[in-house]
Amino acid sequence: MNGEIIPRDQAIAAARAVLDRARVRIARDRAAGRLSPEHELICRRLEREQARREQAVHRAAA
Questions:
Q1: pTM for the whole thing?
Q2: How far apart are CA 12 and CA 8, in angstroms?
Q3: What's the CA gap between 25 and 17, in Å, rounded?
Q4: How far is CA 53 from each of CA 6, 38, 39, 44, rounded to the nearest angstrom?
Q5: What is the residue-wise DSSP string for 1-62?
Q6: Dihedral through CA 50, CA 14, CA 3, CA 7, nearest 10?
Q7: Rounded to an integer, what distance in angstroms lies between the CA atom of residue 16 and that of residue 14?
Q8: Contacts for 36 with CB less than 8 Å, ≥ 6 apart
């Protein structure tokens, strides 16, 4: 059974690689104008939320 267990670091690296590929694909589709208006709104909302989180982190660090 131990042979089937994936080490934590390897699992995280694999998940990040999948997420990175998805982000690249979404960015390409978005740049080419292939996203639906609904998905474009979702991307914009997520970007605003991420910017707010980053600002909060910077404020907390200051």
A1: 0.69
A2: 6
A3: 12
A4: 32, 23, 21, 14
A5: -GGGPPPHHHHHHHHHHHHHHHHHHHHHHHHTT-S-HHHHHHHHHHHHHHHHHHHHHHHHH-
A6: -50
A7: 5
A8: none
The Cα–Cα gap between 19 and 24 comes to 9
Q: Are 26 and 43 in contact (CB under 8 A)?
A: yes
Provide mean pLDDT across the span 19-43.
96
Task: Write out the two tokens for 16.
Answer: 């990040």
- pLDDT number for residue 59: 87
